């Protein structure tokens, strides 16, 4: 495994921390803690020399946040000057000009915004990231606004507008720069242009999808985040709020129809990510009448079915009923995370699905 949160040892550690206090078997708790300590020592040894990627989900920022989470979990002294490291990593991220949530600037902005103690100290870096997002925006022949490197962008939380829109609204809440809101609105117009009778167009299959990475699940998470940001910062109009509530309805309907009985159980593109997103939805203080059966009983039933199948026949995180990854977003660690957060009645997390 690599060092990342997405599919590496950092994500595995975060999953084990999340489930630790739910474990009743003392021997298992000891094993889990020992594993977390081993991961911490590996990250600590590798951190200073690592320079392949600097993002939250795939790189060094994720390693840093995981080390801090483990130190808090173990109640040990913090070994790095955290804010200084965050600032340095953000500067390095800016040099690479990657904008998306999974692998770039948007993930860093979202983390900082959801940890207010960092905002004041990272204002120069936030300004730099704001300028990059404003200056790298693209437009296609349809007049759509996007950041994807191709001319056929997708409705995507991981790689497309959805994740960047979250960062833009957070930056607008901080700086109140009207240029940010203008670009944010044009990006939303792209999403609207891809809206179908069910779901949003997925150009990969010329149909619609319900995953965290691409499709309705990402739309649901982004719109819940928008409304949460608005509750905190009063940064949306009534019309915008109504639009996003309609998007939430549309996304939930699509997830219910195509995103529950899937042959993949992962967080990124499978059932556990969809169930976790729906659990965030039913716990948010958003006035939405869907007139359907998405409620606690529905989710409990679906989580139980997923877990029963996994225990008896295998956790489907690869081909057939086999698992090919222990990773947080690609494997078993994500199933543990989804179950743990559901049991703990988590609301929409600070950093989308994982809450670090």
Number of strands: 4
Mean pLDDT: 91
User: What is the 3D form?
Assistant: globular
Low-confidence stretches: none
Alpha-beta content class: mainly alpha
Taking the alpha carbons of the first and last residues, their distance comes to: 20 Å
| Biggest pleated sheet | 2 strands, antiparallel
State Rg.
20 Å
The SSE order reads: HHHHHHEEHHEEHHHHH
Strand order of the largest sheet: 1-2
Estimate the helix proportion, in percent: 55-70%
Count of DSSP-assigned helices? 13
Q: Beta-sheet strand percentage?
A: under 5%
Describe this structure in words.
- This protein has a two-stranded antiparallel ribbon with strand order 1-2.
- The chain is an all-alpha fold and 356 residues long.
- Helix 1 runs antiparallel to helix 2, helix 7 runs parallel beside helix 9 (216-233) and helix 9 (216-233) runs parallel beside helix 11.
- The chain has helices at 9-20, 26-47, 60-74, 82-96, 105-113, 123-135, 161-175, 178-193, 216-233, 238-258, 271-283, 296-313, 332-343; strands at 138-139, 145-146, 201-202, 207-208.
- The mean pLDDT is 91.
- A hairpin with a 5-residue loop joins strand 1 and strand 2 (145-146).
- The chain is globular and about 60 Å long.
- The chain is 56% helix and 2% strand.
């Amino acid at each position: 495994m690599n060092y990342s949160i997405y599919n590496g040892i950092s994500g595995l550690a975060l999953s084990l921390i999340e489930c630790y206090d739910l474990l009743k078997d003392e021997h298992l708790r000891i094993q889990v803690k020992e594993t977390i300590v081993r991961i911490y020592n590996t990250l600590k040894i590798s951190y200073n020399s690592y320079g392949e990627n600097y993002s939250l989900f795939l790189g060094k920022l994720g390693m840093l946040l995981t080390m801090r989470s483990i130190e808090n979990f173990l109640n040990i002294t913090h070994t790095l000057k955290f804010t200084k490291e965050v600032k340095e990593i953000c500067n390095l991220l800016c040099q690479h000009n990657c904008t998306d949530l999974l692998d770039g600037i948007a993930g860093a902005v979202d983390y900082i915004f959801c940890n207010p103690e960092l905002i004041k100290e990272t204002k120069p870096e936030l300004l730099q990231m704001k300028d990059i997002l404003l200056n790298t925006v693209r437009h296609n022949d349809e007049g759509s606004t996007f950041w994807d490197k191709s001319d056929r962008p997708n409705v995507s939380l991981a790689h497309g507008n959805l994740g960047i829109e979250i960062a833009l609204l957070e930056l607008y809440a901080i700086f109140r720069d009207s240029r940010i809101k203008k670009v944010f609105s044009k990006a939303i117009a792209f999403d609207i242009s891809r809206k179908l009778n069910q779901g949003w167009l997925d150009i990969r299959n010329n149909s619609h999808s319900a995953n965290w990475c691409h499709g309705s699940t990402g739309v649901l998470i982004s719109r819940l985040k928008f409304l949460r940001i608005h509750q905190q910062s009063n940064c949306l109009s009534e019309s915008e709020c109504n639009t996003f509530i309609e998007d939430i309805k549309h996304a939930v309907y699509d997830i219910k129809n195509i995103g529950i009985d899937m042959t993949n159980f992962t967080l990124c593109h499978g059932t556990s990510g969809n169930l976790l997103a729906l659990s965030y939805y039913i716990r948010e203080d958003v006035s939405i009448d869907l007139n359907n059966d998405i409620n606690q009983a529905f989710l409990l039933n679906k989580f139980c079915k997923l877990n029963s199948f996994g225990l008896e026949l295998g956790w489907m995180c690869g081909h057939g009923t086999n698992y090919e990854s222990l990773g947080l977003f690609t494997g078993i660690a994500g199933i543990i995370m989804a179950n743990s957060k559901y049991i703990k009645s988590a609301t929409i997390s600070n950093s989308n699905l994982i809450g670090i």
